[in-house]
Amino acid sequence: MRAYILRRLAQSVLVIWAVTTIMFFMFRVMPADPTAILLERGLSDEARNALLEQWGLTGSLWDQYVAYLGNLLVGDFGSSFLYRKPVWEVLTPLIINTLWIAVPGLLLGAALGAAIGTAVGWARRGGKLERTGIFLATVIRGVPNFVIGIALLTVFSSTLGWFPGFGMGDPGQNVGFARYFTLDFLHHLALPLIAVIIYFMPENLLLMRSGVVENRTEDYIELVRAKGVSQGRVAWHAARNSMLPLITWLFPALAETIAGIVVIEIVFSWPGVGRELVLAVTRQDYPVAQAAFFLLAVMIVLANLAADLVYGKLDPRVVYK
Amino acid sequence: MTSTSLATPENRTASPATMQALATLNDRLAAKPAAHLRVEKLSIAYSTARGPFHAVDDVSFEVKPGTNLGLVGESGCGKSTVIKALIGLQPEGTKVSGQALLDGQEILGLSERALQDVRWTKISLITQSAMNSLDPVYCIGDQICEAIQAHESVSRATAWARAEEMFALVGLPASRLHDFPHQFSGGMRQRTVIAMALALNAGMLLADEPTTALDPIMQSQIMSRIRGIHEHMRRSMILVTHDIAVVAETCENTVVMYAGKVAEKGPTTDVLARPLHPYTMGLQNAFPRLPVKGQPRQALISIPGIVPNLLRPPPGCRFAGRCPFATERCHIEAPAVTAVGAQSAACHYIDRAPEFREAAARPETWRKLGAGA
Ligand SMILES: Nc1ncnc2c1ncn2[C@@H]1O[C@H](COP(=O)(O)OP(=O)(O)O)[C@@H](O)[C@H]1O
Ligand code: SF4
Ligand SMILES: [Mg+2]
């Protein structure tokens, strides 16, 4: 088990290194000048060269690469070209903002999807619940998630006016850490969070349903029924076994899901790391973009590792070698 | 009758309080009487895309308390269908009619909620395919405890201690209760399923081909284990098998089913020594019999042909297409059930049974038919 985890970690490091390297060279070969933004604000040539030097954009590509990796190893992502601040300082609050919609959104999406999927899978075949459940889930899954976001905005913000449609807090509210504990923040959080849930739920629901449908006719379910336990308990056995395929899908799917969250952040102007990533690329703020991609790669790799380990916890038949 | 006294699992880990609770539970369970089951005119039709499929038609039999009833017949004759209906496990949409009185209580057509109270407390099941009958993600002990705790308000420790005793009863070490199904061999899983069926000392045990999936050595081991337990606990039991030799060794009474109907039934000794129905005679030929001293070993003769399609059951005797003694009448008119003492059979020519028996023992009687068909 320990050997397995160590080997997987080593593989993960390799993957992250590869992603980092690719990102690094991609940004360097793009024919664009990151100082362009600043030039517009009237930057002298001298100042420009000094900046390039400071940003580590002088010297051969190889030298730049080695310097970049060396800095990464000590957790130094460099400074943002635009904000003129260390990347960490720029990203940390944005990461926290993203986690606010991503973590509860994905957890609730998965949990609700699994619960409803179990109910739909356990319902009478061809009955109303089954048909409605599958229909709704399939439709929502087919809708691009910016449409979900815009629909939510149109209905609950523009038309009904129940929720604010923009950003994370009204002006003049608390800033810093204290803001997370205000009603105003929760008010702003609601719509993007709901968007993440709606976006993530259908796939979970459909996977869980097909698992339960498959499992409910298995012999072991018949014996559980024969034992005279409650119906809920019987359904639980089917659900518990259906979680296995769900888990294998769930964690790797996070990669794709993160892309979806980027879109939701943009639609709701949620100041998260995904939105910043897109902005950073268009602004050629390489250090920020590279750091964001690096963090994404780390998250995805860790999610895959977590999937393996959780699967092993849930399925006694799995042996780690 | 202390049904569990022979169980003495090694490595007992339970506390004195648990042992006390276990003793109370054991006494309560041991006090359960063996059940009496009376099945009357049981008919079962599956709903299929091509209309109702009459898998079981007008089946009646009785299981007296503490006795063992053998239910035999080829594959597809409706044995499992009967068993499943008795514990309410028929698929949705299946039409079940007739009566099944378990200690006087009608158990057909109960609601799922009402079934919960009957299942495992009064009637339990040893399934046909123990290989797939256990939930792969729970340890064995948990699955046995689940059955106990669904019906008895005892602590998990007490339920586990009871499970240890059941494991001892079927000859498995208590420590293996922590294992998962995939760590067990087929034989061990079958024992597990038996242990589970005994956990609440239900008055009625339904055993649906409990050994079919196993190799022959394991089969006879498990069968003698079942016989031992039956003798010891004196539960009522229906044992489904297609092996007539197993019935001979295990069951007081026998019901022979053919194509969803009872062909013949009665005390096992009578049915096997003097079968009245040609199908019973044919079945006997198809299984190896223990060699009888002074008689030549008999060759195995299988019955040519297959069980008729019950979407459109044949009008006359259902065995007519394969019966070496069938006449014109057999193809037109369904035979009534005729009793001879405690024994009865559905054949037009019961009075000619001695003559049939002689002919049926000769391989060419059946071969001729096979060639003709
Ligand atoms: N769920 C079902 N739907 C339709 N037909 C079924 C179903 N289950 C069993 N049958 C049919 O009913 C007949 C009796 O089956 P079964 O009771 O399993 O026989 P046995 O246990 O004697 O081998 C078979 O012809 C089988 O194909
Ligand atoms: S009724 Fe006719 S066909 Fe049926 S078993 Fe008797 S002899 Fe054979
Ligand atoms: Mg069967």
UniProtKB/TrEMBL annotation, chain A:
<dbReference type="InterPro" id="IPR045621">
    <property type="entry name" value="BPD_transp_1_N"/>
</dbReference>
<comment type="similarity">
    <text>Belongs to the binding-protein-dependent transport system permease family.</text>
</comment>
<dbReference type="Pfam" id="PF00528">
    <property type="entry name" value="BPD_transp_1"/>
</dbReference>
<feature type="domain" description="ABC transmembrane type-1">
    <location>
        <begin position="95"/>
        <end position="307"/>
    </location>
</feature>
<protein>
    <submittedName>
        <fullName>Peptide/nickel transport system permease protein</fullName>
    </submittedName>
</protein>
<keyword id="KW-1133">Transmembrane helix</keyword>
<dbReference type="InterPro" id="IPR035906">
    <property type="entry name" value="MetI-like_sf"/>
</dbReference>
<dbReference type="GO" id="GO:0005886">
    <property type="term" value="C:plasma membrane"/>
</dbReference>
<feature type="transmembrane region" description="Helical">
    <location>
        <begin position="99"/>
        <end position="122"/>
    </location>
</feature>
<dbReference type="Pfam" id="PF19300">
    <property type="entry name" value="BPD_transp_1_N"/>
</dbReference>
<keyword id="KW-0472">Membrane</keyword>
<dbReference type="InterPro" id="IPR000515">
    <property type="entry name" value="MetI-like"/>
</dbReference>
<feature type="transmembrane region" description="Helical">
    <location>
        <begin position="288"/>
        <end position="311"/>
    </location>
</feature>
<feature type="transmembrane region" description="Helical">
    <location>
        <begin position="134"/>
        <end position="157"/>
    </location>
</feature>
<feature type="transmembrane region" description="Helical">
    <location>
        <begin position="177"/>
        <end position="200"/>
    </location>
</feature>
<dbReference type="GO" id="GO:0055085">
    <property type="term" value="P:transmembrane transport"/>
</dbReference>
<keyword id="KW-0813">Transport</keyword>
<keyword id="KW-1003">Cell membrane</keyword>
<keyword id="KW-0812">Transmembrane</keyword>
<feature type="transmembrane region" description="Helical">
    <location>
        <begin position="246"/>
        <end position="268"/>
    </location>
</feature>
<feature type="transmembrane region" description="Helical">
    <location>
        <begin position="12"/>
        <end position="30"/>
    </location>
</feature>
TrEMBL record, chain B:
<dbReference type="GO" id="GO:0005886">
    <property type="term" value="C:plasma membrane"/>
</dbReference>
<comment type="similarity">
    <text>Belongs to the ABC transporter superfamily.</text>
</comment>
<dbReference type="InterPro" id="IPR003439">
    <property type="entry name" value="ABC_transporter-like_ATP-bd"/>
</dbReference>
<dbReference type="GO" id="GO:0005524">
    <property type="term" value="F:ATP binding"/>
</dbReference>
<dbReference type="GO" id="GO:0015833">
    <property type="term" value="P:peptide transport"/>
</dbReference>
<feature type="domain" description="ABC transporter">
    <location>
        <begin position="37"/>
        <end position="284"/>
    </location>
</feature>
<dbReference type="InterPro" id="IPR013563">
    <property type="entry name" value="Oligopep_ABC_C"/>
</dbReference>
<protein>
    <submittedName>
        <fullName>Oligopeptide/dipeptide ABC transporter ATP-binding protein</fullName>
    </submittedName>
</protein>
<keyword id="KW-0067">ATP-binding</keyword>
<dbReference type="Pfam" id="PF00005">
    <property type="entry name" value="ABC_tran"/>
</dbReference>
<keyword id="KW-0472">Membrane</keyword>
<dbReference type="InterPro" id="IPR050388">
    <property type="entry name" value="ABC_Ni/Peptide_Import"/>
</dbReference>
<dbReference type="GO" id="GO:0016887">
    <property type="term" value="F:ATP hydrolysis activity"/>
</dbReference>
<dbReference type="InterPro" id="IPR003593">
    <property type="entry name" value="AAA+_ATPase"/>
</dbReference>
<dbReference type="InterPro" id="IPR027417">
    <property type="entry name" value="P-loop_NTPase"/>
</dbReference>
<keyword id="KW-0547">Nucleotide-binding</keyword>
<dbReference type="GO" id="GO:0055085">
    <property type="term" value="P:transmembrane transport"/>
</dbReference>
<dbReference type="Pfam" id="PF08352">
    <property type="entry name" value="oligo_HPY"/>
</dbReference>
<keyword id="KW-1003">Cell membrane</keyword>
<keyword id="KW-0813">Transport</keyword>
